[in-house]
UniProtKB/TrEMBL annotation:
Topology class, membrane: Single-pass membrane protein
Regions annotated as coiled coil: 250-292
Subunit structure: HflC and HflK may interact to form a multimeric complex.
Species the sequence originates in: Rhizobium paknamense
Primary location class: membrane
Family classification: Belongs to the band 7/mec-2 family. HflK subfamily.
Composition-biased stretches (Gly residues): 7-19
Residue ranges, annotated region (Disordered): 1-44
Protein name listed in UniProt: Protein HflK
Keywords on record: Coiled coil, Hydrolase, Membrane, Protease, Transmembrane, Transmembrane helix
Membrane-traversing stretches: 58-80
UniProt record, GO biological process: proteolysis
Keyword Hydrolase belongs to the record: yes
Amino acid sequence: MPWSNQNGGGPWGGGGGNNNQGPWGQGPNRPRGGGGGGKQPPDIEEIIRKGQDQFKNLIPGGANGGVALVLALVLGGFWLTQAIYTVQPDERGVEMRFGKPKDEISGPGLHFHMWPLETVEKVKVTEQQQNIGARASTTSTAGLMLTGDQNIVNVQFSVLYTVNDPKAYLFNLETPPQTMQQVAESAMREVVGRRPAQDIFRDARQQIAVDVRNIIQGTMDSYGSGISINSVAIEDAAPPREVADAFDEVQRAEQDEDRFVEEANQYANQRLGAARGQAAQIREEAAAYKDRVVKEAEGEAQRFVSIYDQYTKAPDVTRKRIYIETMEQVLKKSNKVIVDDQQGVVPYLPLNEIGRMGNQQGQAGQGGK
């Protein structure tokens, strides 16, 4: 070959007879910048190869054993994630072994079960709300009900409930919320169907809600649902949209009737109060008149008794005095004419009349000034 003439070197003039040299004239392990006595740099490929050999020695079975160990670690981690579960504060957990529920109920916190032999179902135990029916402004007919007086009303109400037995809630009914909704709607129709429309509109909403709640609770208890009904709230009750205007007119007429009745009652109470006041006044006046007459009678009687006592002591004097006082009372306001036995009618000077006329003239003179 042509490059064999250059002392066994390569075609680029590489180094003589050194069989360890490469084609560029230097061996693969020579130092880059120094003499032959310098320290050799580490070989990365050698380090990786030695690490692989040590790892294979640690794992039984060599490379196949390493793959099995990694697979086992992955499967173990996945099993732990499935075996450990968390129950939130508003939840309760029911563990099942081969599909059969255990007696224990898991409370809030971390729990462990033997998955996949055991599984867990979580149930929310805080108060929840179920809305039933639709507002009258919508076209839905879900809340239309027939009342006892053959009227149609649109009722929207809600049911507030809690789960008090998670095991019964999960396993006694297939779909507890849907079942409770159907029971609640049926109970509302039953109660509304026994009452007039006026009760559901205004008069007896609270009592209707209580009756519906009792019916729902009794039915759900008979199913063993594990649900406790807290309350029922009637949110809206109105006539269908087609007759809403006519119903409003009827409502206004009823309100006017109530107003007129109230005004009439106020007038009646006013007149009755005045009449009672007048009656009380008349009774008081009659009682006062009675007392006055009785007192006067008692005084007259006492005066008669005193006169009688004086008469028994001096009959002549007392008789004459009584005669004089009586004549004085009789003749006090009468016109007097004096008649003499011998001369007949005697003119007299009417002093009383003269005194009265003088008083009248004096008053007239003062008025003229």
